[in-house]
Every structure is written in C-alpha cells, then in structure tokens.
Fold each of these.
Amino acid sequence: MSKYGKEIMIGLVPVVIAFLVFMGVNVVPIVLMGVILGSLFYMTRMRAGVGGVGGDRGKTKSKPPAYLTFEDIGGQERAKGELKEALDFLIKHEEIKKFGIRPLKGILMEGPPGTGKTLLAKAAAHYTNSIYVAASGSEFVEMYVGVGAGRIRDLFKEARQRAVKENKESAIIFIDEIDVIGGKRDGGQHKEYDQTLNQLLTEMDGIHTTDAPRILLIAATNRKETLDSALLRPGRFDRHINVDLPDKKGRLHILNIHMRNKPIADDVSMDKVAEETYGFSGAQLESVMNEAAIYAMREQSELISQGHLSKAVDKVMMGEKTDRETTSDERKRVAIHELGHAIVAEHVRPGSVAQVALSPRGKALGYVRHQPQQDQYLYTKPFIENQIMVALGGAVSEEIFYGHRSTGSKGDFDQALQLVQTMIDSGLTELGIVNLQMVTKEEYTKENGAILDRLIATTHEVLANYRPVFEQSLEILIKEETLSGDRFRELMKQFSTAA
Ligand code: ATP
C-alpha cells in the first residue's frame, strides 16, 4: 500500500479540489498553501540528500568515491596488478559464464594500517563502474544477538538497491577490519559474533554469476591469521592480496601524489625524503606532506622547503616537540642515555648517526636520529645482534655512569625483546629451528636471558672504550641541545686516534 501512496495522493488531490469547487468553496488560498508547503517539503528532502545519489543512509558510509583511480594510489604495483586481474571477473562476466567459472565472491586484502587498502577498494569500484558501499567490522558489534546479522543483511540489500537505482551492473561492498566479525568461531560466549559471521557467509553463498547486479565483497584486515577458516575457503574470500609497506620507489610515488596540491620549493629533493622515511606507511607519508605544509604556513613562508619536510619527518616519526620541563639532573641522565645509543650505533654501523638531540618529543625526553637505511628484507644474525646492542646502549651507559638504570629504557627493552623473538622464530639461536609451540616458557625465558646477557656484556665493553667521547659530547649536548652526526663522528675519530 505504502508503495503506491504517492500515486494515490496525486490522484486524490485534483478530485478533492474538483469536489470543493463543485460545492462552491473558494479553493485559491488552499491551492496556494499546498504549493508553498509542497516546495518547502521538497527543498528539505533535497538538502538532506534523501533519494539523491550518495545519500548517506543508515550506518554505512555509502558515499560514492570521488573518482579515485588506481593512478591516485602510490606504489603497491603488485597489489594493484593482482586486484585488477581479479576485477576482470566482474567486467568480463559473459566470458566467465561461458566457461562455467564460478563467480569470484570475495577478495581479502591484508597488510599494516595505512597502506592504502581502503583506497584500493574505492579505486576498484571506479575501475569496474560499480556502486561502492563500505562498512567497518566494528559497526556490526552489538550487545544484542541478531543485530549485527541484521546489519549484514541490510548492507547487501543496500548495495543491490543502490546498484539498481543508479543503473549499475555491479556493486562492491568493502568491509574494513573484517577480523572483528570474522574471528575464529568458538561457539561459546561470542554468540553474537558467530551469528554475524554466519550471516556474512550466508550472504556470500547467495551470490551467483547470473545475478544482476553482481556483488563483489572486498575485506581488509591486519591480522589474517585470526580469521575463521570458513571465510577463507574456496568460494568465499579465496583471493588474498598483500598490501605491504611501500619500498623507496613506492614512497617517492606516494609523496609525489600528496605534493600535487602543495607549493614546493624548486630545490626540494623528494628522493631524499623518500630515503629518510624508511618503514613509513602511505598514511604516514601523507601526514609528512601535511605537517611540512603546516610548518611552512606557521613560518609564513611562500613555499615548503627541505627543512620543513625534515622537521615533518621527525614529527611523524617521534611525535611533536613538547615543552615538558626537565630538571638538570634528568637532562644529564637523558643525554648519557642517548649518547649510549649513539656511540653503539656509530661503532657497529659507522656513519649511521644523523643527530643526537635532548629536546623532548612525544613521550621521549631525547632521541637519536639515524641516517636513512637502504630498503632491506633479509637480516643476518650479526645485524640483528647489533640492533639489539644499539637498543641496549642507553640502559648500559646509565649503568656505567650511575651504577643503575632508570625507567627510561622501557621502550628500548620492548624493542630488544622483539628482536630476540625474531631471532628465535627464524632459527638463529641455540634453540635451533623451532616454533613457539615447541618450546616451553622456561626454555624461551632461558634463551632470551642468555642472548640479552651476552649482548649487554658486549655493549658494556664497547661503551667503556669511549668514555672521553661521552664526556665531550655531554658538554655540547647539555649546552646546545643537539649534536650533529658529523660533529659527533669527529669526536669519535679524535678519540680513536688518541687511543
Ligand atoms: P587501515 O588498515 O588502518 O584501515 P588502510 O590500509 O585502509 O588502513 P587507507 O585508509 O587506504 O589505509 O589510507 C589512509 C590514507 O593514507 C589515505 O587516505 C591516503 O591519504 C594515505 N595513503 C595510504 N596509502 C597510500 C598510497 N599507496 N598512495 C597514496 N596515499 C596513500
């Protein structure tokens, strides 16, 4: 009945007017009033976007992507290639049908946060001329059993309805953080999650080649290993695409994309910025460009300079400079701690220190900035051990000068433990080739302790040899707050020639 409500109303109005005229009533004011009310109602609907393209209804972010193409995504060439190949399933559907190939229902993208998974899904929608409907796993989490499942149903319904309404042959549904609802089912306490996941599986099973519109699900996660195997089996999410952190070429590409709308000085070397941002994600690189522009604007300069970019890299890497007040005792301890890191770093990898600084940033009270590294994908045992020694250098130098450590090394120890775990996982320790299930907690603790004790002793030996460097650098650092890598190397050299 409600479906035809509009039509009945349109038919009824002239009949009522005709009846009133017949009865001798003056209908002019009534008609005028009707016209005014009608226009007001129409204008309100237009402003709210109801029924218009991109009307944002319900919980899902269903705005169509603003023409985001694969060209707007930097790096990720392999991921883009694999994705485009998979998308041919949507485009070349006639051929697919002819060969009796079952439809591709789901693509799973896995990778660290901020690497462009959402961007890829949006570009996929543009590439295939599909409707784009997006939701995040956390939106389906409710206390009440059945609500999440209902939302999944609505999501698929919305995708189908919008595709029909906008005359598109296909729709792409993007679910970010799929691990929130797609975690391994235990049939126990998490009944709500189980129902939501079951509904998702049911919807996926209901996708057929002959369907119009065709539906493709793209999901993203940072933790593929936690997903229920039912989601990953053939016929469900059976295409997996890795979206990794970009290499130097990828970083340069991403930086170039984000500098398009910014005034950059001619002598800026983006290549240098790409080199300095080893390990950064696309989102962090976007942030570097944005922060550099903010620095330039604050300084009222016309163009963004290399200096602004360097400061922005530091900020994204280590957080904003804070004006935390520190006592002179604390400053001295922080200086000794940071010099410990710097001396070990320069000892194991000459030329690696770019700057030692005493200014508080983010949570740290001081920091050592290292020279950019070459992209590296394989690490040898000596390399990892050296990295552990650099991490331990701060605590060891506090021990040398004060006879005890402080709480300032917590982050360094986390890093060292992570590196030891990498060594154990990679079969680089006395435990041999093992996985974590094969070793007991005691064995693990013993090996971890043995490695760290040995490396702490070596770090002690290294640092004890550089006491004069400590003393001279400390003076400069306390007075000037920063010590450049070159000046620091000079001091290191002076010491070794004197030795
Ligand atoms: P998450 O896992 O946290 O959801 P994500 O992988 O989906 O992250 P996106 O949302 O796609 O990451 O990226 C966030 C922002 O980072 C983008 O809006 C964009 O500005 C920038 N970005 C990330 N990767 C790239 C890239 N490859 N090219 C250009 N910009 C990028």
Amino acid sequence: MNHLIDIKSISKEEIINIINLAKEFKNGKKESDVKAKTLALMFYENSTRTRCSFEIAGQKLGMNIINFDANHSSLSKGESLKDTIENLYFLGVNAVVIRHSLSGIINNVMSQVKYPIKFINGGDGTHAHPTQALLDYYTMLEKIGSVENKKITIIGDVSHSRVAKSNINLLTKFGAKIHLCAPTYLQFENFEAFNVTYHNDVKSAITDANVVMVLRVQNERHDKEGYPDSSEYKRLYEIDSKLLKEYGAKDVILMHPGPANRNIEVSSELLDNNVGKTILEQAQNGVYVRMAVLNTLLKGDSNAS
Ligand code: CP
C-alpha cells in the first residue's frame, strides 16, 4: 500500500492488516515504526474529527505534524497544489493528508507530483473518505464481531455522501448486506450499480437492522440546489429511540460519522443516551485506525530530499 485514496484501491488483506494493527495500537501492544517522520495536514474544507484525530495519531506515533494553513499559504498567490506539495516534500514532509471539496482532486494532483511523497485522502467532495470507512468497520467489529450477512442500514443524504460510498465499498468486501434509505431527491445516483437494497421508507429500512448508520443532511450543499428544507426530512426520516427499539435488531447499534444535526436526522435524546455513545467511540477509534494507516504507509519510508 503506497497511498490511501479510496477503499476500491486497497485489498481485503490490506484492510484486515490495518484493522489488526489499529487493535494493537489501541491495546498498547505496538510501538511506532515512524518516529520523527513528518506529516502535513492540508485541510481545504472544515473538519473536527478527521483533522484532530490525524494530528493526535501522528503525535502518539512520535511524528512531526505540520498544520498547513491553506488561507495563509502561497496558494493565495497562485501557487498550484502540485508545486505546494513538491515544495513540502523538499522541506522533508513524508506524507500529506488532504481534505478538499472537489471530488477526485487528490488523484489528480498525485498524478502530477514527481516525488515519492505519500498521499492520504481525508475526504474529497462526494468521492471517498477511506479512513472514515475503516474506523466505522473497526467499530462494527468491536460491537458485533463480524459484518458477514449482517443488515447494515445507511440512512440519509446518500447522494452527497463520500462516507456512504466508502462504507459500501468496504462492507460489501466482507459480506455485509447493505440497505440504503433516503428520499428520492437524496438518492444515490445509479445505486443499481452497487450491491445494495434501496428503501424510501425508514421503517422497512431499519427492520431487523444490526447497524443503523445515520448520515448528516448536508444543508450547505442543498441550499445551493433548491432542495426541500430539512423539516420535511425530519418528519419522515429522523431516527429516535422509539423507532430504533421497535424496528431494529435486538442489539442494534447506532452510528453516525459526525457532525450530527441534532433533531434533524437523529434525535437529541438518542445522541445523549447510551446507544448514542457509539458515535463518540467511532471518533475515538479514528485515532487508532489512523495510527495504523500512517504506520503502514510510512514504515521504511525515507524522504531523501
Ligand atoms: N466524519 C468526519 O469526517 O468528520 P469531520 O468533518 O469533523 O472530520
């Protein structure tokens, strides 16, 4: 594994290795192989969990972390992303984590950069968020042991969701039964190309589900595109304790990649009770999964600049 751009590009074996390594880091059984290597965090779109957990992961591994400030960098003077990253490589940076609103921009810049810096996708547009899918899978394994033949329901704004796409790509590799639920205007385009079952109705979607993964209604994208307002979404799709208890499997777990819109896609009472705590555990597991990703990509890497 040279870079981490999307789940499609990595094998089942590579995913298992990352999960096992994350487990070792979490249990304190593994030492860092990447001490003193340098990681640059290049976030062109806002983030709390991904950015902070990469920073904490790097710190726990003894790495040097550069919080690249896009607003105060020479990008504002017209420097390209390719030139910026090549300069960072010559400053001694081993890897970059990029978050960007444009789908595919990381593949695009990676194909232009001539030097062996490692690329990690921290979420690009509606394309992919591979470390989110890895930490979600890790959390599911902790909670339910295996995803094989389990019903995993992803509810919400699947049309704009890089998290949904990365999770579908990962979980289907491990035999999960994926169910998507969204109003027609937030439906995944060409979902028929994926091995999923589609529901308009929330009750049928969560019936006997082992995992209910709720996605954020991405209001910032809808405002520009003339979608119905979120009160209509709330009326039909908001998940609360009563729905989950009545329709979900006996030990159903609730997940959400965050950030959550309280009382829109998920009720505040559910977020704050014990079932909602899994969402915080997802964020916590993100640190160990990202440690595993950094250690895997950078072990043995030498920036010869
Ligand atoms: N889940 C996730 O990507 O959260 P952030 O946008 O806060 O990083």
